[in-house]
Amino acid sequence: MLSSDSKMLSARAELLDCYLSVRNDTDDICRPLAIEDHAVQPNAEVSPPKWHLGHTTWFFEELILVRFMPDYQRWNEQYRLLFNSYYKSAGQHWIQSERGNLSRPRVDEVLAYRAYVDHHMTLLLQSDIDEPEMEEVLEIGMHHEQQHQELLYMDIKFILGVNPMQVTYDDSFLPEAKGLFVKGVMSELPKTALNEANWETFEEGIYQLGYGGEHFAYDNESPRHNTYLYPFSIAKHTVSNGEYLAFINDEGYNTARYWLSMGWDWLVESHIKHPLYWQQEDGQWYEFTLHGRHVLDLNAPVTHISYFEADAFASWKGCRLPTEQEFEVYLQQNPSEQGLVTELHHPNNTSEDVGQVWCWTRSQYTAYPGFKPYKGMLEEYNGKFMCNQFVLKGGCIATPVGHYRHSYRNFYQPHQRWMFSGIRLSKDI
Amino acid sequence: MLSSDSKMLSARAELLDCYLSVRNDTDDICRPLAIEDHAVQPNAEVSPPKWHLGHTTWFFEELILVRFMPDYQRWNEQYRLLFNSYYKSAGQHWIQSERGNLSRPRVDEVLAYRAYVDHHMTLLLQSDIDEPEMEEVLEIGMHHEQQHQELLYMDIKFILGVNPMQVTYDDSFLPEAKGLFVKGVMSELPKTALNEANWETFEEGIYQLGYGGEHFAYDNESPRHNTYLYPFSIAKHTVSNGEYLAFINDEGYNTARYWLSMGWDWLVESHIKHPLYWQQEDGQWYEFTLHGRHVLDLNAPVTHISYFEADAFASWKGCRLPTEQEFEVYLQQNPSEQGLVTELHHPNNTSEDVGQVWCWTRSQYTAYPGFKPYKGMLEEYNGKFMCNQFVLKGGCIATPVGHYRHSYRNFYQPHQRWMFSGIRLSKDI
Amino acid sequence: MLSSDSKMLSARAELLDCYLSVRNDTDDICRPLAIEDHAVQPNAEVSPPKWHLGHTTWFFEELILVRFMPDYQRWNEQYRLLFNSYYKSAGQHWIQSERGNLSRPRVDEVLAYRAYVDHHMTLLLQSDIDEPEMEEVLEIGMHHEQQHQELLYMDIKFILGVNPMQVTYDDSFLPEAKGLFVKGVMSELPKTALNEANWETFEEGIYQLGYGGEHFAYDNESPRHNTYLYPFSIAKHTVSNGEYLAFINDEGYNTARYWLSMGWDWLVESHIKHPLYWQQEDGQWYEFTLHGRHVLDLNAPVTHISYFEADAFASWKGCRLPTEQEFEVYLQQNPSEQGLVTELHHPNNTSEDVGQVWCWTRSQYTAYPGFKPYKGMLEEYNGKFMCNQFVLKGGCIATPVGHYRHSYRNFYQPHQRWMFSGIRLSKDI
Amino acid sequence: MLSSDSKMLSARAELLDCYLSVRNDTDDICRPLAIEDHAVQPNAEVSPPKWHLGHTTWFFEELILVRFMPDYQRWNEQYRLLFNSYYKSAGQHWIQSERGNLSRPRVDEVLAYRAYVDHHMTLLLQSDIDEPEMEEVLEIGMHHEQQHQELLYMDIKFILGVNPMQVTYDDSFLPEAKGLFVKGVMSELPKTALNEANWETFEEGIYQLGYGGEHFAYDNESPRHNTYLYPFSIAKHTVSNGEYLAFINDEGYNTARYWLSMGWDWLVESHIKHPLYWQQEDGQWYEFTLHGRHVLDLNAPVTHISYFEADAFASWKGCRLPTEQEFEVYLQQNPSEQGLVTELHHPNNTSEDVGQVWCWTRSQYTAYPGFKPYKGMLEEYNGKFMCNQFVLKGGCIATPVGHYRHSYRNFYQPHQRWMFSGIRLSKDI
């Protein structure tokens, strides 16, 4: 029979494995990149990949090693400034839009920094230092790094996509399961139309939302709480490229009345005519993907669209976007879907498409009743962004497995579209 | 016994009276202005008063006379362009931020346009033309004009306030009841502190919200619907200048952690250090009002603050802003408050301050479940602004009497503060 | 025989007459305007006419009355801030681009200010106070006010021109001689073509430039100095609308190689396709003038064009713009032209067109060798603008008579075009 | 006796040597850089070093190989777009400010492109293909590449300088002669003061300017021509850091009257308080150099200042900047100086400092009388920038030897200061 000490040791060993595995996943994502790909920032909201590599490391250094490991020496004092994203309580931070101005530290220096921090994290987790808060922050840190893994896919796609050189991210590094990128898989999706049979309906009543489990969830997913919903339907499939193309062909981008006022201003000012990675050449539509440019797959989910576009499409269709509450109920109450979520990395097993693209909801991101932010520096993690952002639900093909949760609340500004964002329609009954 | 015809005639006569009275109120607000005051636009969101005079008139011309009066001739075809605010379905409109570039039409020409339209509206209402939609739009038009009456007070205050000449809006034209402006009245407010006795608490449960009456309400106030609330308290009084000053003196504007991320960026970029009309001179605080500049009244409600400032103040105080649902419940369930609202134009009768300032809620402006926008051109009235705006509740001293309603949903962007906006705190129990 | 005292008195009386006459001319220019026309600023570089009325008055108050008249009291201390244009040594000044934000002082208040200052200037000039510097500054002040008279025409034209209401400046107030505005006169201009007979040639050698006379000239026109010129020709007529239209029709605005690099960027960014006041409707070209919109007169000089456009036109034509030295020599050495300049306000007497439009030169505005700026506050009058401006020569139809001088150096930034600017071609021999 | 053929062959061999030597110098400059340093663009006017490597290569490919070598195949068709700087006649070009958005082509790919073009250039020059224009363009191309060598030093300094990591460009790669960077050498400069003995005077008269020799010069240096100058003095030494610091300490950056109007606006808006690479820490001034940060050397020439700063310093000193004509005369007529220029890369041999820093002149960049631009695509080389730029004369320590010429006309916009720019004072006599 194991003593409680050895149980703890075994739990710690598992934690360390988990930590090293998450860290390794990040390195894997960057491995196919050229050094030059790590350094550029073609847009203020896109970060250079080497910044992600450094920032996720800074998180563990600043929140764990500095606080819990006696005599820990920072790798480089300048990194406090350079790899702090926006935590005012952690001192000054480099301006986000100027991350791409910095050629140094070099990629190899950042990787050395990662190794140094990983080494010390290993020592710490193998030691008998045991602070409850340490494990709590470690768990957040691992989820934080996973969020940046998805951001890396987004940013890499943008960096390669703006380049007219037609660069392809190395296929061999794309997990096979990440079907979104695999043109072959997508084209096997059943041809669907938006008819009655494809709507799922929910009754009026009180529903429970928010995270109620015993595993990890962010502060903004709590507390679990009641909400009152009215009868609604939600589409069983996300909107496809083909359906979206019909909107374009019906003058959707030239018809003001489908659009929010701010959306129309955005569209006119930015000369928006189609989703982010679409290109038209000689009448044929193409889409840039991490596998290179392909003829647009009309059966694949439309992706990389802004809230403005999602909302305008829904207006054109005579529907609306779901609220985040409706979407969460949909995720919860549909057992086959729930199974699907678990199996998400084997999308070939199912004809449904939950988890392929983040779906915009019409809910602006705000605090749940009774919301309590993290304490300390992490107070800045979620709450201070509750303004002018919309919630997206469901996860996408670039989302790490551990990040799929019914209660997960992703959020972006309504004009942003470099994430893997799509549409699931809803309507009142 | 009256025939139904004569009943209608009498109802129509009443409607005409009402119409003419609303129209006259608008003229009254502008009467103390110099001609020059009518023409300038010191800020993109502030409109020249003569534009308000024209736009409210265009509304009746375009939505009623053109549609329902046979052979009606527009006063001037150019006014369709110049006085359309943003209705895409009504053709082109002049760019909002360039309204102040137009010296013509002159004020006297706009007044002649008003007289022409009023004359034809009178003829129409005295005729036997009877379309149900006509009366519906007329009612909206009158409420629309009342909204612009409040905007006129806001814009006039801004126009006079940016001017270093220390201009005073003519006192005799300020209705006596508009106590906010009357320094004497304000200083008689009881000195209040934020203690337990001053909180009103509400229990968990299902509440009904939205307009359910038989009179006028905008489309965005419907339908009446259930919402599930958790126990909360709401302060019985709005935050005073004195309380807000304590926030300033405690380095509130220099402490990032009280602020939303966007709020902090706004504050830094715009060099914001205090509410809009406050000025400090030799250590003494002053406030610009429509009666000129006065020593800051510490007992008056703080006003002209942004959502960012309201939210930061609440954080500093360890409280939060109420949701719009909580605020509406507060307005509904407090009978003395309800009476107060009715009596609002006699604020001396009460020690409370509902209706003095619009109070920011933490709710971003979105559609009620089952929301149905107006049909036709008026579809653009409310729905297309449901993005990046926060709801304010309760009304202010510049709000026309007919506009106080528990269900009324005012909305502004989080950085805006030229409206009469203030703070009422809330907290979870 | 007059005593020297009475001579002085008579000279002073003349000076006062001259002063009052200049002041009255300014009032005359504004007389046809509506009050509203005085207040707006549709562009950062255009000033509200009431600002011109105030600023020219401030000049006399601040530089003469305050300094030379004992016990003079300023009309309003705030006007020091509001009507200072840019003189840093005269204290703070209101931001130029925000002049149109100020509804106050009202037009009648500004006129009262003018009357007050004129009254005190009269008293001063009738007194026995006699300071040499006073008369010197007075002379500059009168020329300064005449510069603003031309600016008033420019700004009024712009204010009326941006307005879609098709406003016409009152014809009766346009001096008959101002032929540019008189469509009839212009169309009688001889049809000209750009052939040898229409070039005037000059030989290589040393020429004298700059003001050498005994009357008034600005500091930047001195000293008179030698310059070495190479043989050149200069066109006897300015480029006509018809010739310029040929440039447009030959894809001039779509062909990068005719344009300066900055010019092309300006054109693309500002969507420039033709001169400022030109409009095309159903294939017909129109031009907005102070007399309203007219069919484009192909024989009238092209006007309201930028340096970029002038330079591109010259490139297209295989010619170049003259240097300011060449242009001044042309003005000097052509006796018939010289006569013309004197008679400029009777343009019907001649077939030539000097003085109709300011002509762009390829010379960037810089100091003459040995240039000495004014002393004191007026040091800021000219020298500090010697950067990124091009010189224009010759005067325009809106230029007051006293402002035509061979040595006069007008200057504007290369993208500006709301002044009456045109083209006279030149070439090397 | 050599046949004319073998003479040509020998001349061609020399040309090839020269070509390869220039190309190799460029590679040498980039050799100490990390790959990441090649890719970033911290400012719109700074280009990523790998872009310079590609652009200079594109020049030879597009202007020589494509035109003169039969069957030449471009290395990559996309490079036509990416490495064209601004030549509209060479097709589309990538936007300058977005060069840093491109991670591809990689540095190794650009180097392969260089090798490919060098290989074909070698073949071409070893062939019997002989077109007079080919050699002419080749010569321009080599000088063009040398201009980019100086730009590389400027851009590398900026890229390393904005980085808080305190990066040092590898010393061993800085040619020893490049004294500016060598703190030791600079501090041996004699202490100088601005007294009579240090001025050199020139008499009134006609001087000859412009290139008149038989070697290479750009189109904008011709033709040789007369100019009339008035007596002037020019300082024998450039302004030192110590002298400039006195200007700062005398409130130079806070006193509007020293500054051009645009200069003051620039200073206020950009919060400029000192030269570009100066930093103050605990009262001590430091300067960032390619050798890292050093205590400011008070005897070294002030460098990296804008025209605005140079002009303001001269005003404060009661002097002025020289015209470009005066500066060229100074360079011509001072035999010891002339020698110095030849010996420039041995600055230890002399106590003078011509060629250390480019000196601002008060002359705005314009065409010489009789200027004829290059033909064809190279027409865009110089002439289209003759607007809003000021001429700098004399060369700097980063200028390749072959680029020092009395007639050389460098030019920058008045706010730019990332080049090695300094001040030499002048005055009228």
From TrEMBL, chains A, B, C, D:
Transcription regulation keyword on record: no
Keyword Iron recorded: yes
A Pfam match: FGE-sulfatase
GO-annotated biological processes: ergothioneine biosynthetic process
Entry-linked Gene3D superfamilies: paralog of FGE (formylglycine-generating enzyme) (3.90.1580.10)
Protein name, entry field: Ergothioneine biosynthesis protein EgtB
Sulfatase-modifying factor enzyme-like domain span: 204-329, 354-425
Keywords: Iron, Oxidoreductase
